[in-house]
Structure formats: structure tokens, C-alpha cells
Write a structure and sequence with these properties.
The structure is a single chain. The protein is 34% helix and 24% strand. By secondary structure, the protein is an alpha+beta fold. Strands 3-7-8-15-12-11-9-10 form an 8-stranded mixed sheet, with helices on both faces. A 5-stranded mixed sheet has the order 17-16-18-19-20, sandwiched between helices. Helix 1 packs across helix 9 and helix 6 crosses helix 7. The mean pLDDT is 93.
Length: 411
Amino acid sequence: MYDHRVLGRELGLFDTDPLIGAGLPYWLPDGAIVRHTLEEYIRDQERRAGYQHVYSPVLAKRELYEISGHWQHYRDEMYPPMRVGESEELMLRPSMCPHHAVIYRSRSHSYRELPLRMAELGGQYRAELSGVLGGLTRVRAMQLNDAHIFCTLDQVLDEALGALEMIRCAYSALGITPARYRLSLAGADGKYVAEPEMWQQATAALVSVLDRSGVPYESAEGEAAFYGPKIDVQVTDHAGREFTLSTVQVDFYQPSRFGLAYVGADGGKHRPVMVHRSIVGSIERAVAQLVEEHGGAFPAWLAPVQVLILPISSAELPAAISLSRRCDSLGLRGVVAGPDGGTLGARIRAGHLAPYQAVIVATEAADGQVALRLRDGRRLDPLPAPDVLARISAVVSAYSTRLWDQSVGSG
């Protein structure tokens, strides 16, 4: 594996600056492409799975976090309140779940609407000490892929299983291998809410989910959220350190604290269960893991440059530019590396992380054909440019980790 802190800077994905502060990286153009593409993938998968996307403010009154329990149980990791005027105190949010609970209770709900799946890609803020910060894996401001499912007790199992399946599909598309699955339980200290019946019920639900899913897992005390147990999907970095990337949680506590309700088939009010889930965790930590596992050779759909276009000489430059415009029209990221960048061999070596290298020579340019080199070293016979780009588009749109899909082309 690779050290993402070193390689990420070498690849021009992200960097840091003392004027901005530790644990607050900024994204460079290629990193912004990776981040945006990953975010769009998440939104697309959530839309397909029936999630409604929302936006909520990154600031809220301290009272919100007193109701949710974050202030009592999590304040050491929260930024201090900011006083506005004489008495109002605002805080940067450490989590989105209280905000989504407020959105849910903003109107009445019927059992017919449930499960109600609410998702957001938004900022969260943690007052991490400088000694624990590390590249993108531990930051003070993160963009979290978060979602909360409001459902009946009978729906919890299927919803949590559905979240685990979304995680599996995302890892497959990203080429990420989980280290292990962990059932994170409460510890003996006092940082957890004292609601033993809620804990027992939530833990039993997650055990059923894990057993039904068929994945091997281990239990770990002291790793739960303050309000309930979790299923954590663990990954390891280049140094063998373990991090949580994705999570599924069952929460009976916050629905009670916020007085959430739905009208049942009997006409009475009932309390929903809140299933928390994050498919790839924070965007920062997900990109760190991608860099470490792939060394910058991202799956084609995620690569900052998907098609590197290499004209042999300036005579083929018009054909190269035309191919680049075809890429644009198909939503592919094509970049021309012209002869001013050195010999063809030098340009090929410099662009070795691009999944596709389209070499343009005089005879093929005249025929509108492209000789394609794949990142894994394969060289394909010249093909008409529209065919080449159509086949690349098919791989990209399928979120495949393969470079050349045999179902749409030979090679």
C-alpha cells in the first residue's frame, strides 16, 4: 500500500498550508475531480435506492445538541459555542442526525410513507487535537456521506441489510477491500446514554442484520456511538492502522429525544426507529483509502484523466483536439498531451496513471481511427474513434473496475 499523505501531494490531489491550519486540507484540481465524481456516484446510488436528498445548516443553537445528547456525551470533540448577540450560542455541527430529526418532525408522517430515507452530503466538524490528525484520514472538517432512515420496527432489518448491500456495491465499484466487520458495543465508562432496554433492542437488531448478511464479524466493546451500537466496516492503511470507513447504526434514543412520531394504521401515534448509515464515510477518508489501495491508478470512472490523447507530432494535433471534444460530448475526461511535452515515450510514461492512452498517428488520424493503450499494458488494434469512446463510456457508466469490458469490445 501507499502513504496517501505523500502520494496525494505528488499526484496533485490535495495539500495543506499553515495559514489554513492542521487537519484542514484543501483540494487541488485533480483531487476536486475525484471528490466530485465520488460524491456524484454516491448521490446516484442513493437516488436509485429511494433516498430523498436534503441540505441542512452546518450551524445550530447549542440547544439542538443538548436535546440530541451530543452536548452531554460528545462535547470534548465539538467546537466551543460561538456567542452571537447577548444570549444566542451557535455551534458547528459534529453530526447531521439531529438536523435530520428536525427535518423529519417538521411535518406529520403516516406509516404509508415509511421507510423514509433521507440523505445528505454535508460538512461536519470535530475539534480534533493536532496530535491525532493525519492527512485525510483524521481531519477537523469533513464532508460526510450521511443518511438516516426513519422506519417502523418491522422495517429495521431490511433497511439495515439494504445499507450493508449498498456498502458492498460501493466497495466493489471503488476497488476497496474491507479488513473486517465490527459490531461496536458500549463500554463500561459513562459516555453512553443509560437506556439499557434501548441498547439491548438495538444490539439484537444489528446481530440479526449481521447474521442475515452472512459476513464474518467481531464484537468490540467501547466502540459504539453514545446513543447506540453500530456495525462498522473497517479498513487498514499503509502502516497497518485500522480505521472505520462505513457504518450502519440502529437508534431508538434520538427519535425519543426529539419526540418523532408517525400515524399508524390504527390511527394512533407511534415512534419510528432511526437507522443511521454512511456508505463511504467521509469523502476525505474514502479518498485517502483509494490513494493507498490504488496508488493513484483509480478505476476508470473515478480517474481525473480518463483518456490521455497522444498525437505523434503537431500534424496530428487537430485530430487529437477533435477526439478531446468527442470525449467532452460523452462526459469523458480527455486531455491532449501534445508533442511540446516531449517524446511520445516520455509522454506515455508521464501519463501512466491514465486508464486509457489514445495514440494518434498520421495514417490512423486520416481514417478517424485510434490505437488504444490500456493502463495494464495491453495495446488494442486501431478502432474507429466513436467505437473506442463508446466502449470506454460503457465501462465508465457501469462503474466498473475493469479497463476493457469484453461484453462491449474485444481486447
